[in-house]
Design a protein that fits this description.
mainly alpha; rod-shaped
């Protein structure tokens, strides 16, 4: 944008210089013609008026061209002001973009970390679920075994007197065997 404005300014500068040079040459020419006319005494008053009119036109054209150049300079200054304003905005946008890119990189790093953490948590949950399943199976087995044992207790309690009686009988037999063996050993 700056180059465009500079190029436009340069092109207007050349046009201005060329126009001024042209107007100055035109003015100079007219003045020489006027002098030549006076020296030659061939001019008449009507030609003199025409020459003055031409000079006025040239001066008016010069004035018009200078006014155009002033307007172009004013426009150029306005464009330079706009350009400066837009450059500041561009710098702010670039700064914001860099900041956003840095934040995005940080978010990506956090995302990767959180994904890894999530993966590890899922693995832990899976292992814990498997352990819970094993423990539940084990608890179910122990509960069944406990129920079986609870059901077996009354039967075993019923067998206690019979077994106690059988023990007593066995002890009697053992005592008799002991007594008989003493007697055979002594003889």
């Amino acid at each position: 944008m700056v180059k465009l404005a500079e190029k436009e300014r340069d092109s207007l500068e050349d046009v201005k210089n060329e126009a001024e040079a042209y107007m100055l040459k035109e003015l100079s020419l007219l003045k020489w013609q006027e002098k030549a006319t006076k020296l030659a005494h061939e001019g008449t008053s009507s030609q003199m008026e025409q020459m003055q009119e031409n000079v006025s036109i040239v001066e008016e054209n010069l004035k018009t061209e200078r006014e155009k150049i002033r307007e172009s300079s004013k426009t150029l200054k306005e464009l330079e002001g706009r350009h400066t304003k837009y450059m500041k905005i561009q710098e702010e946008l670039d700064s914001g973009l860099r900041k956003c890119k840095e934040e995005f990189k940080e978010f990506e790093r956090q995302d990767v970390k959180y994904r890894e953490d999530l993966k590890h948590v899922k693995q832990k949950i899976k292992k814990l679920d498997e352990k819970i399943e094993k423990d539940s199976t084990k608890i179910d087995g122990l509960t069944k075994e406990c129920e079986d044992s609870t059901n077996l207790i009354p039967q075993l309690e019923d067998n206690i007197p019979k077994l106690h009686k059988a023990l007593m009988e066995e002890e009697k037999i053992f005592e008799e065997i002991k007594e008989n063996s003493k007697g055979t050993l002594l003889s």
